[in-house]
Amino acid sequence: QVQLVESGGGLVQAGDSLRLSCAASGRTFSLYTMGWFRQAPGKEREFVATITWNDGSTNYADSVKGRFTISRDNAKNTVYLQMKTLKPEDTAVYYCAARSPLAANFHSWGQGTQVTVSS
Fold first, then answer.
1. Residue 116 in 3-state DSSP?
2. Spatial distance between the Cα atoms of 66 and 32, rounded to a whole number of angstroms
3. How many other C-beta atoms can be found within 10 angstroms of the C-beta atom of residue 58?
4. Amino acid 30: pLDDT
5. Cα–Cα dist 1/69, whole Å
6. pLDDT in the model for residue 83
7. What pLDDT score does 67 carry?
């Protein structure tokens, strides 16, 4: 199992940018597909973006495509989520998650970081 700690959340205005970080423990970080998910008040947790462990392929939810960028630095055991042109509907707790190569689902989760976008 990998331990995950998110940081970088905060209160911003619509149109602003923010970068979230997720620091992972363990020596096998480079073998994990990493993802960002979010949960708004009263809503189910939803997928935001993923980045694979092998070729760094990325995938995004339609709602963030073109505004958010996921990246990873395996040397620093860290995955990032660069968020631009933030909207009030991006307000949520953002979670980092890890999935090992043979796992079907994300199995390790961080504690979350709050992002609040005011209009």
1. strand
2. 24
3. 14
4. 85
5. 25
6. 98
7. 98
- Interacting residues of 59 by C-beta distance below 8 A, sequence separation 6+: 49, 50, 51
| Long-range CB contacts for residues 91-95, cutoff 8 Å, separation at least 24 | 91/40, 91/115, 91/116, 91/117, 92/38, 92/39, 92/40, 92/43, 93/38, 93/39, 93/40, 94/6, 94/9, 94/20, 94/36, 94/37, 94/38, 94/48, 95/6, 95/36, 95/37, 95/38, 95/39, 95/45
Point out the residues of the chain with pLDDT beneath 50. Answer: none
pLDDT at 37: 98
d(CA 54, CA 74): 11
| First-residue to last-residue Cα distance in the chain | 39
Beta-strand ranges (E) seen in the chain are 4-7, 10-13, 18-24, 33-39, 46-51, 58-60, 68-73, 78-83, 92-99, 108-109, 113-118
- Contact between 2 and 25 under an 8 Å Cβ cutoff? The reply is yes
State the pLDDT at residue 8. 98
